[in-house]
Amino acid sequence: MTEKVQNQPRLIPRAGEDDFEILRQSGIYYADKTQYLKPLFLGTDRRFLLLRPRRFGKTLTMTTLRSFLEMDYQHHGDTSRQQELFRGLKVTADRGFCEQHMGQYPVVALSLKDTDGIDFRNACDLLGDIIWRLASRFSWLKDSRTLHADEKKVFSRLLDEDLLCSGTAEAIKTLQSSLVTICSALFRHCGRKPVLLIDEYDVPLQKASMRGYYEPMSGVIGAMLSKALKSNADISKGILTGCLRATKEGIFTGLNNLSIDTVLTDSESLGP
Fold first, then answer.
1. pLDDT on residue 9
2. Cys staple from 241: which of 58, 118, 228, 254, with CB 3.0 to 4.6 Å?
């Protein structure tokens, strides 16, 4: 963030503006809540579900976490980007926390808010596009010297948009394993377990329930979350956000030790 941007008149954020970096780089007013990054990241279990109503800052929280935690993949240890973005914000007062965690993690961040399918096939196509775009952020992994040939082959399947959006059984199986595949590849390449951030996990389930394809959709999302969060030892932290704790029979049935925080939770660690 340049000095020119810092000194220009502050702008009022538009409704729905939830990208931390855009807010900071564009000279837009930002209500500093970065003091909650430490308790959110360190003061809970390894798997955490943050439930809040709409327009309650869930997505902004996730983009702030990503900006704070994500490492420079080309220049490991370089935190100059974070130093500029978070300059003057409350989190920087905790030097120990910043030195240990700022810019130190691979981060796998995605939002499921656009998985608004009119039917199951359409929803899977939309999910396939989300996963393809996510994997494309890490396309350099296919050339990693650290990954084995079979690991590169599995990861490369996530770069095949035609496959992911084909609606076939093979596509669904690939989608279900997509997050664990990306996390495992990042861990092996970077040498540090990634942080997994999933925003609005419940949107595809809400839409599926409304439009009559909940059962197959819950199978896809449930398996994706279970593989990525339950049996995956290759993540350091998994954080999800949503409006609903569970839909119908519950998407988290097979996921143990999931810490859940709602607006009614009596917790001093995360503040109000």
1. 45
2. 58
Please list, in sequence order, all residues whose beta carbon lies within 8 angstroms of the beta carbon of residue 169, skipping any fewer than 6 positions away: none
How far from 5 is each of 22, 33, 84, 85, 250, CA to CA, in Å? 12, 21, 12, 12, 46
Strand partners, 107: 195
User: Tell me: the pLDDT tens digits for 124-145?
Assistant: 999 999 999 999 999 999 999 9
pTM: 0.88
Buried b (16+ CB within 10 A) or exposed e, 61-90: bbbbbbbbbbbeeeeeeebebbeebbeebe
Residues 208-229 as b or e (16 or more Cβ within 10 Å = b): bbebebbeebbebbbbbbbbbb
Return d(Cα 125, Cα 100) in angstroms, integer: 39
Distance CA 88, CA 190 (A): 30
Instruction: Provide the residue count of the chain.
Output: 272
> Which residue positions in the chain have pLDDT lower than 50?
1-7, 9, 15, 247-248, 269, 271-272
Please give the Cα distance from 173 to 232 (Å, whole number). Answer: 17
